[in-house]
Design brief:
Blueprint: E1 3-11, H1 16-26, E2 31-38, E3 42-49, H2 52-61, E4 65-77, H3 82-92, E5 97-104, E6 110-117, H4 120-129
Antiparallel strand pairs: 1-3, 1-4, 2-3, 4-6, 5-6
Length: 142
């Protein structure tokens, strides 16, 4: 059930993000969720896209440093305490969260939170057993 997340390593210079976004636009690749973190000399653009295989191919063709990893996307009640419930389940399951980011679905009263965890299978099992909706690729609203 895990989702493919792309991580693009960007030099921390004017226009580099624009360059990558132009490549995606030119290749009709839609970004559904993203997170951008900066370090001293580079940034990490983490994305969920509609076609990760195509995205990897076109970015590598343009000499953009990209890799992929599996993440867990789970529906979270869009209310105070909704995120806490999910995080608490993972903590109680002994699952470390490396990082996370979220987006709100257009058609539901739910948010979707993307978690990078040490043990994806264990995290998915923990969440499903607790009645949480873990999304598959096809269920990510594009």
């Amino acid at each position: 059930m895990s989702i493919i997340q792309l991580s693009v390593f960007l030099e921390n210079r004017l226009g580099r993000l624009d360059d990558v976004l132009q490549i995606l636009k030119d290749n009709n690749i839609n970004i559904r969720a993203l997170s951008l973190a900066d370090k001293a000399n580079y940034g990490i653009l983490r994305m969920i896209v509609d076609n990760p295989e195509k995205c990897i191919t076109v970015l590598k063709k343009e000499n953009v440093s990209v890799n992929f990893t599996s993440v867990v996307a789970v529906e979270v009640e869009d209310r105070p305490g909704g995120l806490h419930e999910v995080v608490k389940l993972l903590v109680e399951g002994g699952i470390n969260i490396e990082y996370m980011y979220a987006f709100v679905e257009k058609t539901k009263d739910k948010a979707v939170v993307v978690f990078r965890v040490e043990d994806i299978e264990k995290a998915e099992e923990c969440l499903v057993l607790a009645g949480k909706k873990v999304l598959e690729k096809e269920e990510i609203p594009f």
